[in-house]
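Handout, section B. The chain below has 536 residues.
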Amino acid sequence: MRQQWIIICLLAYVHLSHQKSSPNLPTYVAAVIEYHSEFHIDSESTLGANTDAYVKLIETASAQKVDILVFPEDGLTSYTTIGRHELYNWTTIIPAASDNFIPCTNTTINVSKTLREISCAARENEIYVVINIAEQLPCVHQPGCRKDNMFYYNSNVVFDRKGKIIARYRKTNLFMEHNFDTTKEPEVVIFDTDFGVKFGTFTCFDILFYNPALQLTRHQHITDIVFPTAWFSEVPFLTAVQTQAGWSFAEDVNFLVSGYNRPFSGSTGSGIYLGRKGVGKAIMSRINETEMLIFEVPKIKRTNESESYQNHMKDNNQQTKSYKEESTFYELRNKQENTITKTNNTNIFFGHDFIDHFETFLFQQQNISQKSLCQNSFCCEFTVSTVLTDPNIKYRLVVFSGTRKYGVTDASVSTCGIIQCLNETIASCVSIPRDSKTVFSEMEVTARFEDYKNILIMPSTLSSDLLPLTKWAYDEHTHDNHVHVTISLNNNINNVVTFGLYARTFHEGKNGAACAFNTISGFVLSLAVLLLSRLI
């Protein structure tokens, strides 16, 4: 009898020691994967190889006492082009969270081998796992149903520690993904965890739209987001980590981002972001690699819903808020290897904005320059000072307010900043970022944004290492229905690529507006990336 009790106690101890965090702890342990996907022509080999890799990574994360592990968009299938007529073998049925389905042990629904094996890995390692996978859903005589009688979705799936599916999200804002379908209404997906944190989830391109991203933060008051992505970086305002850090800061939420890794096709960038507390870990890689980023994330505790940053702004006019980014950037890394080229960053493919549609002013790199620049009644105030200039690098002050296209999607944008150029031509301002010996002693950008209830305002900073700048200040002053925002940096710094504000404006919670112009990040970039993905 005594031996039996010893065995029971040992088993209980093993189980408890495997348990990671609890609701009472002030933190939880998160991991995100910068993942280089394998592609083997056929669906079975590709899904099999990536599933095996996922299982090993789940085991590694569990050994590090990780509570929740996030994998990227397209990681299982790769983003190599697949015709819609081929999708059936690459996709799986995904039961709804309400089905309480555990693919590892249940056989009543015929899910794919991949879904079953990842469920088993989550169950055996007692860890929450977030994946992105292509979903199939038969349809007949339903609105939007195509001739093949199938809906295909770009979907996120969340497994709990028992391997049960507790969330399924179907991507709302597709970027040149013509083979996939979208739901009639955007899904707003939330899931609970046993360590006391409620999460929301969305995917990649969704980050630049109101639905569902801002529905989660501003209406559901979610403080933590899991975000699979296969981002295509665009200079000067929308490189991966730059955008991820900016969005996390804007909404003041913990943001767990897992990025697809294929730098030569334009995709890299993962991180764990802590809202207005800074960056936990982030990586931009110049090589094909898989890397796990692990960080102990402070839980965000708000005593009531009005403490949400955006709601606080809405409810309190004539408020001034100041934030300083000091030593809260914990770890930022730029992985590089000179096996391809010794020229900075040329082994990452970049899209770019059309700066020739902006209002611009060439900064002559004098001791001090104060300038006001406007476009379509949107104005920005600049103060710039330098103590040393680099004759090989120039800078422009830029402002844009209007509509642009992301792929084939129209969007309203207001942005302004100080950006790097290789020479005095506007065309050179969308070149690959370079090291710069120009030392700024002061940079300040101020803008007024109307109707801030329907706007996403992100700080947008970038160094030549493709990571955000540090030690800058951010001030907001709200009055009636507008907000004055100032981003400033008052210490000597070089290697600046971008310093400014990037805002998406929405109309009554909608996503976009009318078409004005296209960018290379749209149709041309997509074709280039698809061709590259065939070759690499």
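Note. The first strand starts at residue 27 and ends at 34. Compare this with the example in section A.
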